[in-house]
Design brief:
By secondary structure, the chain is an all-alpha fold. It has seven helices and no strands. It is globular.
């Protein structure tokens, strides 16, 4: 919940960074590519079960880290064509990596529900925590972004 809350908060900050640098379309486009990569990445869900859950969670967590790093690189490098292409390609790749995280969550819940037949309970708890991450992330950002500044946050 904490990881997803912070990641969801920073998704909006990337668009603010690009807007502040005078480019209104780059932030929404990179976010769109992130979600497109995440959606298409869900197609390989059948391969995720071949590896232990802990490795999939660890690997999948790097998707947002790649995307957030791209935003910081974008601020430093500016709007050169090579930087833009790199950022757009890696945004899509970061989304595909994020899908490993989300698919592993639901595969893990399916695994747990096979153990004690409480699928509805586990899905309810998981979705409650996932949706709470949006509230937690927005609350955290409202308290910390102004005193810390966007870049430091």
């Amino acid at each position: 919940m904490v990881y997803q809350g912070i990641a969801n908060t920073v998704l909006g900050i990337i668009s603010q960074f690009t807007h502040q640098k005078g480019n209104d379309w780059a932030g929404p486009l990179t976010t769109s590519l992130l979600f497109l990569g995440s959606g298409l990445g869900s197609l390989y869900n059948k391969y995720i079960n071949k590896y232990p859950f802990k490795y999939n969670f660890f690997f999948g967590a790097f998707g947002y880290i790649i995307y957030i790093s791209l935003g910081l690189i974008f601020m430093k490098l500016g709007f050169s064509t090579a930087a833009e292409i790199l950022i757009f390609v890696l945004s899509f790749l970061g989304g595909a990596i994020c899908s490993v995280f989300y698919n592993t969550q639901f595969n893990y819940i399916n695994y747990l529900s096979q153990i004690d037949k409480r699928e509805v309970k586990y899905f309810g708890i998981n979705m409650g925590l996932v949706q709470s991450s949006n509230i937690f992330g927005n609350l955290l950002s409202s308290l910390l972004i102004e005193p810390m500044g966007q870049f430091l946050y």
